[in-house]
Amino acid sequence: MDHFLYRDGVLHAEDVALTDIAASVGTPFYCYSTATLTRHFTLFDEALHGMDHLVCFAMKSNSNLAVLKLIGDLGAGIDVVSMGEYLKARAAGVPGERIVFSGVGKTREEMRTALKGGIRQFNVESEPELEALNEVAIAMGVKAPIAIRVNPDVDAKTHAKIATGKSENKFGIPIAGARDVYARAAKMDGIDVVGIDVHIGSQLIQLDPFEQAFTKVAELTEALRADGINIRRLDLGGGLGIPYERSNEAPPLPMEYGDVIRQTVGHLGCEIEIEPGRLISGNAGVMVSSVIYLKHGEGRDFLIIDAAMNDLIRPSMYDAHHDIVPVVEAVAGAEKSAYDIVGPVCETGDTFAKAREMTALGPDDLVAFRSAGAYGAVMASEYNSRPLIPEVLVNGDQFAVIRARPTYEEMINRDTIPEWL
Ligand code: LLP
User: Fold this and answer.
1) Ligand 1 center to residue 320 CA distance, Å?
2) Which residues form the active site (predicted)?
3) Nearest C-alpha neighbor of 346 from the set 304, 409, 299
4) 37, 44, 56, 60: residue to mutate for ligand 1 pocket, most atoms within 8 A of CB
5) For strand 301-305 and strand 336-342, is the pairing parallel, antiparallel, or unpaired?
6) Does the ipTM surpass 0.95?
């Protein structure tokens, strides 16, 4: 459930009409709902009720400072994967003890920054990384808390580009060899082994891959404990999918996912961490764009809109479906047409949807892309010298621009021409 509903024929974010935001900030723009972000975080928190737990929002899905502050103030932890994400999470007021650091290529500088600024744990993804972290921590005279990310070789049954838990993927260490790596880690002076980490992929719409992976993690926990290693925390990653195509998708609910966690690892007495991104931020955001032209092509009509692949890359990158709806609802019974919905960028891949059935639309009409709050603004670029589009946060009947649209001057002046040119 989200808080983007039609009222008097106009799509609203909570109590604010998207037409009002468009009039104020121009199009295209991203718009997020405070109530939806809050609700989705709370669903996970409740799903893990009764277990010692921390829900660590995967900020790669949406890293606006205001969104981080909102979620952080609810008590969330944050899953970060870079120096920039770590510093942003801290700037949003999230304490280091609620930040977990994931990622296959952490640099020594990132390790030092996190150890100095405070960190809950590093999710270590390889032996060279373990050695580097040990050296960095020893040089600083501290112990780095770690979980080792294991690769359980489980098929997440999702898009190949976002599956991470198969042995051919670059992530984690093979679970079969994990005991040896843990044994080495346990002897390192700069390392404090606290747990096990796993993340098998994103946009999972079935529970059984989670169940398989978590069962393997439970077995490993017991094996490691038998080896004398005190595993007290399990980070089970993120990945629970959302219904992008509302008419025919119903992924499992956080509560059902919580039950899988309880059944597979609940008996171990470990503290549980999860790292959901998409399910918290995805349906909490829309991208609003306006129609520039309706172009009649051969056998098809193109709706050319002012948003493009640089603003929302998911359709061209993953063939992802986003529901696209008119902001001003058509009258009941209005005829529908099939449109290819495309942006102005000079690539055929700049196509959001093909032959999408919509009520008749024309120049200046507004459309909203649903489920755009995750992996939307964060993956945007300025390709074709199109400035990044603004982000707006709604709370009840108020809204605020939480990232302003840069001026063309600002965009141009970021480059410099050397004096010898
Ligand atoms: N934890 C780790 C270690 C991850 O790599 C990810 C996502 C998450 C948590 C959060 O997963 P989520 O709950 O959001 O599924 N750009 C792609 C998605 C990439 C996901 C990368 N890792 C997309 O637009 O579909």
Assistant:
1) 14
2) 346 (proton donor)
3) 304
4) 60
5) parallel
6) yes
